[in-house]
Each structure stands twice: as structure tokens, then as C-alpha cells.
Write a structure and sequence with these properties.
By secondary structure, the chain is of the alpha/beta class. The protein has helices at about 5-10, 20-25, 30-35, 50-60, 75-85, 110, 115-120, 135, 140, 155-175, 185-190, 195-210, 220-225, 240-250, 255-270, 275-285, 295-310, 315-325, 330-345, 405-419, and strands at about 40-45, 65-70, 95-100, 125-130, 145-150, 175-180, 210, 215. Strand 2, helix 5 (about 75-85) and strand 3 (about 95-100) form a beta-alpha-beta unit. The mean pLDDT is about 90.
Amino acid sequence: MYQPLADRLRPQTLDDVCGQDHILGPGAMLRRIVDSGRIPNLIFYGPSGVGKTTVANIIARTTRRELRRLNATTASSQDIRDIVAQIGTMMAPSGILLYLDEIQYFNKKQQQSLLEHIETGGITLIAATTENPYFYIYNAILSRSTVFEFRPIAPEAALRAVLRAKERLEAESGMVAEAEEGALEHVARACGGDLRKAMNAVELLFAAGEDGGRVWITCADARAVTQKSAMRYDRDGDGHYDILSAFHKSIRGSDPDAALHYLARLLEGGDLSAPCRRLLVIASEDVGLAHPQAIAVVKACVDAALQIGLPEARLPLAEAAVFLATCPKSNSVTTAMEAAMADLKAGRTGDVPAHLKDAHYAGAARLGRGLTYRFPHDFPSHFVPQQYLPDALQGAKYYEYGPNKTEQAAKRYWDAVKG
């Protein structure tokens, strides 16, 4: 039966695992735990193709417990009951090591069915997930487990794995493979940190490049088999919010190049609505009154993008992203609104002053509505001092002028008018 190259090359020791030195290098925490032989409940979090299953297999070989595997995308509650029934029997006298892949697909009841056996030690759980465990795994499981994050494989480490894959295929086939300069490096970069993708690409290149007892690996073929392989994007997944967050923070940090990079990743994933919404938010949240026209400019760009659609929509959105990134910044509106909302949530409100209440109806005067209201346009500079806040909030200060040119000009004007 055919076995993929990624499985044939799966590391057998921790020393062979690529790119996870932060948790598996000499002296790293997970490495010390595995070497001790006392395996606690573990949750491996990270994208696909970075070694989660491989490390779980290596751990399984270091323990005396029976290994059972489940994939939460296909497993049922009955599968869990079948495993639980083996605890303490001749089939698993020392307990069970359960490797549960894609645990985020188990519902709360299914996850909770493991709790009793995790607590008593009948089951040692090693769960893997591509989604943020703090969003998708229930607290009762999290509190009994240690989370380790697996990171995407760096291109340098991926290249070592690609070269090892080439050597393995040469040994298996008896043929010599010649690679055009930069071809294998492209595979290592374009796999997006996913070694499984890199191994599959090498296997395809080897099969397609055979010619007269030799194998030719060209840059053109490498580009063909890795199209969009570097993209890690799921609109409903963890990475979606990470990219949006980086996009927003790059604009807030006035870095147009980073803003364009993350915008490109969003658009390449086919996501048009999320960057449109985020750009409109940024215009008020991070530019605000430092450039009051920013919201109008961005709205025009967003409207144009939504009207013309992808792929051309990338141009007005790029214009909006660069514009916002290079605008002066002010969060005075944000902090002012947050301060006002904080008073409201704390119950500090009070009745609207009588002179500000609606007086456009018969009988308003008898109720004392609007009797002492002064119309600002009847006074010099269209301003007259009077109370606007409720009695309970007299003297409350929410808005502070930002240090930018626009807000400071407004401050100078009102300082002069109000004396």
C-alpha cells in the first residue's frame, strides 16, 4: 500500500524533529518532561504539518501505557466509551495514553466524558488542535493539562527537511536528482511552515521530473507545485483574527509596508468584508480627530472596493490602508467615549437638566421644560456658558484634546472663546 513520503520520513526521536527548539531543544520544558518519562496531560496547539502528531508518537514509545488514537472529526461518544471500558483490564492494565487529534471538534459533553478518567489517571490525554485551545477547549480540560504551542517551521529548518527528502527518494529509486539553483529553497519557503506540504511537493517534483534515469527539478516546476502553499488562512479560524489584528496594529503603528502585507494576505484568502470593516474602524479609532476627513476618504475607498469586487478591489483598499498608516494619529475620541461609557456602566447618569429637555409641545412650559435655555447662536462666537451635563456629573471630563495639529488648533480656538 502506498505510504506518503511525509510518513516514511516521520522522525523517530526528538532530535530529528524540525523547528520546535523552543519546546524540544536541549533544556526546553517539553523535552525535559518527555525525558523524565512521567507524562502529564498535554495539549499541542499549532498549525498542521509542524510535528504535533510526530511528537505524540515519540512520547507514546516512551511510556508503558497502551496507546489509543482518536480523531475528533470522525470519533463518536461510543468510541470514547469503548476506550474507557479497557481501563484496568488485561488490554490496558497500566492505563491508557489517548492521542486525540483535532480535539476542537468534540463538543462539551464529549470532552467532559474524559474528565473523570483524566483525574484518576486512567487516561493520560495528549490532545492536538489547530485552533486556539483557550477558545475551543473547555476550562475543565485546560485546567488539568499543560499547553505547548508548536510554531510554523522556519524556511531554514524546512530546507534541511527538503534536502533529506530528496536524499531519501534518491536512495529508494536509485536515481540521482539534480535541482536547478533556488528550486528546493523555493519549496522550503513556499510551504508556509508546513513540512507535510514540503514533503508532498518534493515527492511530486521527483515523480514529474524523471527523465532517462535521472530526475530534473526546475524552478518552474517548484513554483507550479507550491502555488498558494504558503497561505495559512481560514475565515472562521484562529489565523483570521491574528492577521486582522496584525493589520490593524500595523496601521496604528504607522507602518504602511506591514499594513499592505497583511491586507494582501486577507485579500488573497478571498476575504473582502473583514478588511473593509476594519479600515472604517481604524479611521475613527486610531486617526480620529487628527484627520477628521479620514473617515470620508476611507468610506469612499471601501464603497469603491465593494462595488467593483475582487481582484480590482485591492487597489482602493490598498489606498485606504496606506493613507491611514501615514495619517497623524489620535485616539482622543476612543478614550473619551470609553470614559463616558465607564460612567454609564457604573450607574453615574442623572436626569437631563430641565432647560435642555424637549419643549416643542403644549404644556412644556407648565412642566418647566426649556424655560432657561439659552440659544448659543444668539451670542458672540456662537457660545454661551450653561449647564449641559446632569447634576450628578457636573465637572466630569471625558474628552482631552490630542497633541496633533488639528486638535490643538481647535483647543486654541475654544480657549480663546471660553476664556
